[in-house]
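Narrative summary of target 7.
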Amino acid sequence: MTIPRKEEIIIKLVSSKSKKTSSKIYSIDKGITDKYAEPEYDEDLSLIQDEDVPHFPVQDTEPARVELKPEESNAVEETVEETVEETVEETASAPVEDTEAEDTEASFPLSVHDIRLSPDRPKSDFMPEGKKKAKKRKHNALKILVSIILVIAAGWATFVYANIPFIRNLRNAYIETAMSTMTHQWLAEWFIPHSIIDEVMARVHAAEDAQVGVNSEWKDDIIAKANSDFYSTFDEIDKESLTKYLKEHPEYQQASLLNLDINEAGFDDDGTDIVTKQGDQVLAIDAKNGILLVRVEGTGYMGVLAICKDVSKLRCCPAENLGSIGEVLESLVPRCGGVLGVNASGFHDRGGAGNGGWIKGYAMCQGVEYGEHFTDSRKRLELRDDGKVYIVDCTSSVASNTTDAVEFRPALIVDGVSLVDELSDFCSIQPRTVFGQSRDGDILMLVVEGRLVGRSLGIGLPECTKIMENYDAYQAMNMDGGTSSEMWYKGEYITKCSNPAITCRYLPDAWVYG
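Modeled conformation, tokenized:
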């Protein structure tokens, strides 16, 4: 018996246990007819089981499912009930004719990839290959997502709770960084329990309180230098590197080094090949004004250290319209007759405008007093008429011979003794401004850029202290930082503001030199 020339046939499967009959429509292609050629059927089309004929095992379970191609499935599903009845009748009465296996393919345009009739096979076996791959991709994506969530959760738990020194210091620095800003404290409060934040900040406040009573005394006089000699005045400069640089750049050569004026400090400049004895790059030398600008760099930060040789050229200058609005350095410094300037006091941010119009704390600018004294553990830096910088408690009386003063915190170095290190919890990574004086009387003004990804993220106060110590600081104190940290020199900014949208924030006052 040959297979009828029909696009579809019905095979009735009789269960050996329940004797129940189930019908299914199957499409047959050439490969199938070759494998299961010439099956025999009884009168009701039940398959006759024969040992020599391949057959399909049937169990007393739900009927097996066959997965057709999409175009086949759509056609069959629409008319499945009608097709079953019609096909049974047609198949029973259809004439049978002999045909070669090669003709079978032309007679049956529908095809299936496989016929699986075992009810024990999983549902996925009947799924098209495309759907299988899509399901596998979805499963893999879910596994990856869950893995990422678990890694993040584990990382968060380690960062927040681990007591490993490196992680603990990093966590403390992060908390201090966020909590010391005016607008970004949520970066800590959203992700870290308040109990941990309170613990870290309590240590910071305790370290600040520990500075109360630590005041400058200057037991010894300033070490005098022979200002008539260039290399005595600029004793930080490596003589060999300067000599070589001047030979390669005759435009800077002068009859006397005391007239030397090199300026390669701008954003578009690469600096010089001159180095200091400490190994830092020299950006500018102004011998007449006694200014040396040095590039300071470290892991994750960069900035400029200004070393000023004549303390008599230094003063604190207020913004022109202090009390209503601050002033940017590019306006304030030349207005006050200076060539170099950095920010000084903090300010009250009334209304969140950040316009620098009201000094926070106390300040004295060339004998004129501004603001009100802090009543906590902050310190006051006083420039007195003896040419020395003193650091004292802000609650103490202002010395009668003080000419200029600024209150902030914390003190970094007092009378040559460092008060800040990695264990003192002043580790927040910020843009920074530090003001100090060396043992031989040089004024040191350090500005480190920050919050600039790819350029400079900022610096902690322990690192600032090391930089100041490296240049023989005898007194040093932290000034206002963040967006306020800026340095201006001879008509241009030589450090970048942490806010890329502006060149400088409006400031209540500034240290001006020249």
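The two ends are 114 Å apart (CA to CA).
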